[in-house]
Amino acid sequence: MLDFEQTQKYIAQSEERAKTDRIELDSPFAKEIGFTSDKFDGYLWKNGKFMSISFIISKEEGKGNLTRLFKNINKQGYKIEVPTPFPNMELILKCHGFKKTIVSDPLVGEVEVWKQQGLKWKRDYKAITNILSVVSK
């Protein structure tokens, strides 16, 4: 358990990191990888060799925008991780070979993080779309 001073230091470091490592929608790098406001809402962060995708929502489900984003992130040399994904996102991550892990955070404890294991892309978009349409009803 962190004491008050350690907690304040951790929060300050996290806030500073979020400012420097967050990728804003429509920024030059975001445009390069396709993370644009016409396609998505959500957050991206650079985290070492990983790009963290948080609370991302596609504005046009089933159009392949998320798969293109994954591929473009990989082309930049990053693997992808998704902390606590929405249920629909879990299905997509499973289809793309992501694995659920549990990591320990000093402030919040155990956190579910889905990590990209390889760069194998399953192209059955119709199946993914069908699964999502059933789940969202």
List keywords for this structure.
6 strands; 5 helices; disordered C terminus; 6-stranded mixed sheet; 137 residues
Task: Describe the protein in words.
There is one protein chain. The protein has helices spanning 4-21, 28-33, 65-75, 87-95, 125-135; strands at 22-23, 40-47, 50-58, 79-83, 98-105, 109-116. It has one domain: Aminopeptidase (3-Layer(aba) Sandwich). The chain is an alpha+beta fold. It is globular, with a radius of gyration of 16 Å. Mean pLDDT is 78; it is low at 121-137. The protein has a six-stranded mixed β-sheet. α4 (87-95) runs antiparallel to α5 (125-135). It contains five helices and six strands, in the order αβαββαβαββα.
Count of individual helical segments = 5
CATH fold label: Aminopeptidase
CATH class: Alpha Beta
- Secondary-structure element order, N to C: HEHEEHEHEEH
* Number of self-contained structural domains: 1
Distance between the termini: 42 Å
What share of residues are in beta strands? 25-35%
Oligomer: single chain
Low-confidence stretches: 121-137
Overall spatial form = globular
Helicity level, as a percent range? 40-55%
Structural class: alpha+beta
Secondary structure blueprint with pairings:
Layout lengths: L3 H18 E2 L4 H6 L6 E8 L2 E9 L6 H11 L3 E5 L3 H9 L2 E8 L3 E8 L8 H11 L2
Parallel strand pairs: 3-4
Antiparallel strand pairs: 1-2, 2-3, 4-6, 5-6
Give the structure's gist in a few sentences.
The protein has 137 residues and is an alpha+beta fold. It has one domain: Aminopeptidase, CATH 3.40.630. It has helices spanning 4-21, 28-33, 65-75, 87-95, 125-135; strands at 22-23, 40-47, 50-58, 79-83, 98-105, 109-116.
